[in-house]
Amino acid sequence: MSPFIAEVLGTMFLILLGNSVVANVVLTGTKGNNSGWMVITTAWGLAVFVGVVVAGPYSGAHLNPAVTIGLAIAGKFSWADAPTYIAAQFIGAMIGSTLVWLLFKDFYKGTEDKGLKHATFCTAPAIPNTISNLISEIIGTFVLIFVIFHFTDASLGSDKSPIGLGSLGALPVAFLVWVIGLSLGGTTGYAINPARDLGPRIMHAILPVAGKGGNNWGYAWIPVIGPIIGCTLAAILYLYIRV
Q1: pTM above 0.70?
Q2: What does the alpha-carbon distance between residue 94 and residue 203 come to, in Å, rounded to a whole number?
Q3: SS3 for the chain, per residue?
C-alpha cells in the first residue's frame, strides 16, 4: 500500500468512526442517543487507534495535517512529501464523512435541531469567542504534537520506516487523543486537525443532508489555523529543548 492510499484509508476510518459516534449520540432516535461526552471522547480515541493500525505500517499514520506540518518543521519529515500526505488526509476525511451521512440518513430526517446535524460533520464552539476558541485549538494541538515528539523523539527507526502517530503504537496515541478530548475538548469540540474539520464541513455543504442549516464558514478558519499554530509552537519548543 502506498503512503497516499494509507493516509486516505486511515483518515477515512478515523472520520467514519469519530463522526459516527457523534451522530449516534446527538441524532434523534438512535440507540446511543444522549449517551454523553464520555462516549464521544472514548470512541474518538478508539477511532484514532483504528486509523493508526490501518495506516501506520505504510505511511506512519499522520492522519492530520498538523502532524505532518509539525514533523516537517522539526526536520523529521520531508516538506516535499507533505502536500501528498495532506491531500490524502482531506480526501479520506471527505470520504469518511460521506459514509457517516449514508449511514445516518434516516436519523437526519428525524432530527429537528440543525446544529446537531452540523455537529456530526464538524466542530463548533460551546461559547463563540474568536480569541478563546483559537486558543483552545492551539493548546489542544500543541499537547497532541508535543507529546508525540516526547514519546517518539520524532526520529526515524533504523529501517527508515515512516514516522507519525504510528511511531507511538496505536494504543498510546488513542489514550493521548482520549485525554485531550476529556480535558480540553469541551470548549470547541477539539478539532485539533484541519482535515478532520474542514473536509467534513465541505461535505456538509455539498451533501443533501435533510433539513440542514448553515455551515458556519465564519468559524471554519479557527479549526484550521489553530492547529497549524499549535503544531508550529510544539515543533519550535521541541527543537529548542533538544539543543
Answers
A1: yes
A2: 6
A3: CCHHHHHHHHHHHHHHHHHHHHHHHHCCCCCCCCCCHHHHHHHHHHHHHHHHHHHHHHHCCCCCHHHHHHHHHCCCCCCCCHHHHHHHHHHHHHHHHHHHHHHCHHHHHCCCCHHHHHHCCCCCCCCCCHHHHHHHHHHHHHHHHHHHHHHHCCCCCCCCCCCCHHHHCHHHHHHHHHHHHHHHCCCCCCCCCHHHHHHHHHHHHHCCCCCCCCCCHHHHCHHHHHHHHHHHHHHHHHHHHHC
Kindly report the CATH class assigned to 3-242. Answer: mainly alpha
Of 184, 178, 145, nearest to 43 (Cα)? 178
> Over the stretch 76-96, which tens digit does the pLDDT of each residue have?
899 999 999 999 999 999 999
